[in-house]
Amino acid sequence: MDDVDARTGGAAARVFAPGDPDFVADPYPGYAELRARGAVHFYEPTNQWLVPRHADVSALLRDRRLGRSYQHRFRHEDFGRVAPPPEHEPFHVLNDHGMLDLEPPDHTRIRRLVSKAFTPRTVEGLRPYVERLAGELADGLVERGGGDLLTEVAEPLPVAVIAQMLGIPEADRPLLRPWSADICGMYELNPPPETARRAVTASLEFSAYLRGLIAERRADPGDDLVSGLIAAHDGEERLTEQEMVSTCVLLLNAGHEATVNATVNGWWALFRHPEQLAALRADRGLLSTAVEELMRFDTPLQLFERWVLEDVEIGGVVVPRGAEVALLFGSANRDGEVFADPDRLDLARADNPHISFSAGIHYCLGAPLARLELAASLGALLDRAPGLDLAEEPVRKGFVIRGLEGLRVTV
Prior knowledge:
With 411 residues, the chain is α+β, with helices and mostly antiparallel strands. It is 52% helix and 10% strand. It has one domain (3-410): CATH 1.10.630.10. A hairpin with a 5-residue loop joins strand 12 and strand 13.
């Protein structure tokens, strides 16, 4: 690829088509062509620079010349941007106060405080609950003779776990998944107006609910994560109420969207690779590496956006300040320069530096919990439904957040 191709988006326009159902169903051949043609490609429809190679994605995630936001240093007009429409403000207030979209020093402060309440000990303490619930959900699927793995196993587990951590009463938990799904719709490329409307409504409703819950915990603290966030402090520093609300929403959205989609993507991959599924059924010792490989093979978060705060050179092409880069996690995780035979599902793969949980300061705080949930769910289904099989071909949903409309199975 030459500089002209990079700047005009010639390669990207031909092979990167997130609006095309065929591309969404299987973007990996297109990614391979992007990697072969160069390190960076300008994609005019979204005005972004696509970065497909593992080495570049990994390096840029750690490069402080890029940021999830630019507003800590620049105004919108400095970057040739306009402020979001006023009617979208509730979504952006909620989103912009979460760790995922903050940069130092605010990111550093909030992550340090949240880490005090979200410790490895907290996660490990959830293990009995996670494993018991995974078993109960698998048993229910078997008793019903099969069903939709998405709605009957993949969704209920992480939603219940996050709700348990936050101390959300069981009667209120059915509210969480619809709120999360509506908010996460805004993370797709060029979301339509109706998606934005639903995200704003969900942001208002979810925020109001959490403010009420925070008020209850201030008056009557418990041993849940909301009480922990209220109590967390470092010297005189504490989380503001908005930061607590945004943190809770982020933990729910990131914590369960990834696990839900990794579960169904993983089982769909196993059904398409019966020899690997048979190997896993025969050897539970593969469970740990299987979780990592399934996260790599069909990555639940395909794309992670960052802003260029200072000119940066990628593969000989200077990407200017003010540009937005789209780091293609799904492509990086299939890079043959890093992974041997990258398009092969290998549940025993030992050398697996996938970046499905990101890297750098925005590395996923909930990665240990996600791994625990995925292993528990996978193990429970293997044990309780040894004949689990696909009932019908699933339909893909989303591109940035990669999942399925459903996954109907028989037992």
